[in-house]
Write a structure and sequence with these properties.
heterodimer, A: alpha+beta, four-stranded antiparallel sheet, 48% helix, elongated, B: mainly alpha, Rna Polymerase Sigma Factor, Chain: A
Amino acid sequence: MKVVPLDPGGHADVLVLLPWYLGGSLDAVERAQIDAHLAGCARCRAALAEERQLAALQAESASPTGNVNQGLAALRQQLAANPPRRPQATRGRWAAWGSLAAVLAGVAVLPVLWQHETEPSYRGLGSAGVAANAVVKFRADTTEAQIRAALSDSGAKLVGGPTATQLYLLALPVANAEALARLRQLPGVTLAESLDAGGAP
Amino acid sequence: MSLLDSVARQARSLLGGDTSPDGLEARERRLVARIAAGEQRALEDLYRAYHPRLQRFLGRMTHQPGLVDEALNDTFLVVWHRADSYNGLSKVSTWIFGIAYRKGLKALQRFDEPQPDDAHDTRAEPGDGPEQQLASSQLQRDLQRALAELSPEHRAVVDLTYFHGLGYREIADIADCPVDTVKTRMFYARRRLRALLPGGKEDWL
């Protein structure tokens, strides 16, 4: 994935996200963007080293451990003090929620609700089966109408976003250099990169 | 993170079978469905799986060890009575931690703990609590004191991020707040904690 590093003034975005970068919970676009910034910024690399120390300090700190059996015994007493639950038709309610979620996400109704989609939300915004092959960023003052026009002009489908760093994931008919160059020339577009090329995570 | 690993192992051994994240989630969803159908054994299985994690989380968030057991059991009473309201849109762990978060805050309200912003609070001097006694080094004791100065909401974000390894979106779901609030809380907390590190300063940007 080719991602343009954040501009030199972009330290703030990177610093804010470092704990989750370290913890591995960022999405691929955010991670790639921070990788790109760190490669060229000694200051943020130093902040990352400090972040590692903080995280290690937290993780190593001892936790008070209670006794699970005692806790469970207390819970049983509390449950005994309450009238027993009446079984309810929960599957019906769950299925209704699942169908609603599926319709909202634009995906087919899942045959087994237990295997409900747990992908990051940015992937859930688009149509099923459409993979993002490009990422685009708009100027902060770009209007929704301009964004719609840009997408329409390029034949792109919006697959997800905005991410925390205001990137949108697109599915272009063909994500070649020519298509990306056309995107970059559209009003409001500040970044357009392919997600297909390169080997970033 | 050996404690985290052991917690995860314990959860997996209690739930048995497939140890992949998807397999674990599927099993937890089945447990919640059985709880909703009134099966107390399922509640107890889920309780055993979550007890270590919630002990840690509630202990860290409230900084009042005396409140942890009560808040934890209050959490599972809600799981018992409201399992049928779990809609499957979030992970089971997000749902349970969200309940625990609210129960932790409620327990603190009942305890009427003076908040860090209060000009003259009446808390015991830092260093007196069991967490400080557990601390193995001066740095760990300093960490506990610094955490005690933060609000419960800030401590919750710190623990969910560093110890439980959750992403900011999931934490926002747990705390029922915007993702930007999670990021701001974490940034503020890190600035305070960073002052503990050798050569550390609070000002960052």
